[in-house]
Design brief:
488 residues, 2 domains, disordered N terminus, methyltransferase activity, MttB-like_sf, Trimethylamine methyltransferase, methyltransferase, MTTB_MeTrfase
C-alpha cells in the first residue's frame, strides 16, 4: 500500500483568507507604521530597553526601525508548550495549525446557573466556572470568566488565580491587574510547579497583557510584558480594536493597526530577553454603528481573526484568537449562530489559543450554559477539520464484496472497528420525536444548564496537595493592592 507522507494536508479541512504575498504586504505596512508613526510607551524601563536596542525614543513616542522588528521576529520562540499543573505533562503545543479552545477572562457579570440571576462575578462564580471548564472534554485551558468583585478589586487577580488552580489541572491563562499582581500569581505558580526553573521548563500558566488601541502601551501592560520576558514565561500580547473606532474602517487597515501594536510589543519582549516566548493575536472587530458596542458576534470578527491567523502562520509566531462568544443577552438562537460560526471558522483557520468561549452580551457577562453548548460545537468543528481518510482500509472494497448487494453493514466487524470515524454527540439530541418527548422534550439550553449544574455539584477536579494550597492561600491573604500609576 502506498502511504502519503503529507496525509494531514490531504485529510484536513483548512481555510485561508490571505496569500503569503498579502501577508508580507500587511507585515511590511505594519513595520512602516511602527517607524513612520510609532507607538507610545508609558513605562520608563520599557523606554530604556527600547532606546538601548536602537529604537528612536522621543518622550513616550517610540519609533522602531524595521531591522529591529525583523530581528525580533527571528529570535522569538516558535515552539511554545503549556502543561498540566498537577503532572507537568506537556499538553498544548501552541504552534502551526494546532487549534485549542478555552474561556475568556474579566467579565464584570455572570449568569448564575441555578437561579438564572445576572450578578457581579465572585470567588464562587469563578470557582464554578473553572470546575465546568475542567470537566468538558473539548475545552483545553482555563481563563477566569469573571472579575472577582466580592474582594477588593486591586487584589482580585490573586483570588481569581487561586480559584482557578484549585479547580482545574488544565493550563491557565491568567490576567492580572498590574505587575504586582502578576508577580504574586507567578510566585503561586512556582510553588505549584516546584520552583522557578521548573515552571519555566514546563509552564502551566500563560501571562496576558494588552495595549490600548490605537497605539498606546500603558504602564501596566508594558511592565507585565517585560516581567514575562524576564521570567521566560509565555506571554500573550493582544490588541482589542474596533474598525471605525480605534482602528481604520477598512479591514486591511485594522490588520495593520493591530499588527503594529502586537509587533511593537514583540520587539519589547525580545529586547528584554531574546527568545522569550511571545504569543501574538487580538480581538479585531467592528464598532457597531447601530449600538456602539464592541461586537463579539459580527462576521467581521471571524474574518479578521482568520486573516490574522494567516499572518501568524506566515511569521511562524503562535496566535491568540477568539471564538465561542455572542452579542446576545441570553443563550438563544442568535447565541447559537454566532458561537457556532466563530468556532467553525477559527478551527479551520488554525489559530492556536482561542479564548472568550462563554462570553455573552458583547463580552460583559459570562454564561456557563454557552460554554457547555460550545464544547459540543467544538467536537463537531474538530470532526470537520479531521477530514476524510482515504486508503485501502477505508475504501472498504473487501467489505463491500463481503456484504454484497442487499446485505447489511450494521453487524460487520469493519463497522465496529471504524465507529469512531463518526462524531458521537454528548448534548445534541438526535432521537425520534416520541423518544425526545418521553425524555422531557427539553431544549438544548435546558439540557446544557442541567449539565452545568451536574458538573458543579458532582465533578471533582484533581486536588492540589494541602500544603501547596495553604501556601497559595497565604499569598492571597497577604496580597497588597497598589493604586494605578503607583511607582514600585
Amino acid at each position: 500500500m502506498t502511504t502519503r507522507t503529507n496525509f494531514k494536508a490531504y485529510a484536513s479541512t483548512m481555510m485561508k483568507i490571505f496569500t503569503d504575498a498579502q501577508c508580507q504586504e500587511l507585515v511590511l505596512a505594519a513595520e512602516e507604521a511602527m517607524w513612520r508613526t510609532g507607538t507610545d510607551f508609558y513605562d520608563k524601563e520599557s523606554l530604556e530597553i527600547l532606546k538601548k536596542a536602537g529604537c528612536w525614543v522621543d518622550g513616550k513616542r517610540v519609533r522602531i526601525p524595521a531591522h529591529i522588528t525583523e530581528r525580533a521576529l527571528r529570535s522569538c520562540q516558535k515552539h511554545v508548550v503549556l502543561c498540566n499543573s498537577r503532572t507537568g505533562a506537556r499538553e498544548l503545543f501552541v504552534e502551526g495549525n494546532n487549534a485549542y479552545f478555552g474561556s475568556g477572562p474579566c467579565t464584570p457579570f455572570t449568569r448564575n446557573p441555578f437561579t438564572n440571576e445576572r450578578h457581579r462575578a465572585t470567588r464562587q462564580s469563578v470557582g464554578w466556572a473553572t470546575k465546568v471548564l475542567d470537566a468538558l472534554p473539548n475545552i483545553d485551558y482555563a481563563m477566569s470568566l469573571g472579575i472577582v468583585q466580592d474582594v477588593p478589586l486591586l487584589v482580585s487577580d490573586r483570588h481569581e488565580f487561586e480559584q482557578q488552580i484549585l479547580h482545574t489541572e488544565k493550563p491557565i491563562i491568567t490576567v492580572c491587574v498590574d505587575a504586582w499582581g502578576q508577580a504574586d500569581v507567578i510566585k503561586m505558580a512556582e510553588i505549584v510547579a516546584g520552583g522557578e526553573e521548573e515552571l519555566r521548563k514546563n509552564p502551566f500558566i500563560c501571562l496576558y497583557a494588552e495595549p490600548i488601541s490605537p497605539g498606546m502601551h500603558c504602564l501596566e501592560a508594558a511592565q507585565k510584558l517585560v516581567m514575562g520576558a524576564k521570567k521566560g514565561l509565555p506571554t500573550i500580547y493582544t490588541p482589542c480594536i474596533m474598525a471605525g473606532g480605534t482602528a481604520p474602517a477598512t479591514m486591511a487597515g485594522v490588520m495593520v493597526q493591530g499588527l503594529c501594536e502586537s509587533l511593537s510589543g514583540l520587539v519589547l519582549s525580545q529586547c528584554t530577553r531574546e527568545g522569550a516566548p511571545f504569543i501574538m493575536g487580538g480581538v479585531y472587530t467592528i464598532l457597531d454603528m447601530g449600538t456602539t458596542i464592541f461586537s463579539y458576534g459580527a462576521p467581521e470578527l471571524h474574518l479578521l481573526l482568520a486573516g490574522l491567523a494567516d499572518v501568524a502562520h506566515y511569521l511562524n509566531i503562535p496566535m491568540f484568537g477568539t471564538a465561542g462568544c455572542t452579542d446576545s443577552c441570553i443563550i438563544d438562537e442568535q447565541a447559537g449562530i454566532e458561537a457556532a460560526l466563530s468556532i467553525a471558522m477559527t478551527n479551520m483557520s488554525g489559530a492556536n489559543l482561542n479564548h472568550d468561549t462563554g462570553y455573552s452580551e458583547y463580552g460583559t457577562t459570562s454564561n456557563l450554559d454557552l460554554v457547555v453548548i460550545a464544547d459540543e460545537v467544538l467536537g463537531m468543528a474538530r470532526r470537520l477539520t479531521s477530514g476524510i481518510r482515504v486508503d485501502q482500509e477505508t475504501l472498504a472494497l473487501e467489505v463491500i464484496e463481503r456484504v454484497g448487494p442487499g446485505g447489511s453493514y450494521a453487524n460487520d466487524d469493519h463497522t465496529d472497528e471504524h465507529a469512531e470515524e463518526n462524531y458521537a454527540p454528548r448534548l445534541v439530541n438526535r432521537a425520534a420525536r416520541n423518544i425526545w418527548e418521553k425524555s422531557g422534550g427539553k431544549t438544548l439550553t435546558q439540557v446544557a444548564n442541567e449539565k452545568v449544574r451536574d458538573i458543579i455539584n458532582y465533578h471533582e477536579p484533581a486536588p492540589l496537595p494541602k500544603d501547596i494550597a495553604a501556601k497559595i492561600r497565604d499569598i492571597v491573604e497577604n496580597a497588597v493592592g497598589h493604586m494605578p500609576g503607583e511607582d514600585e
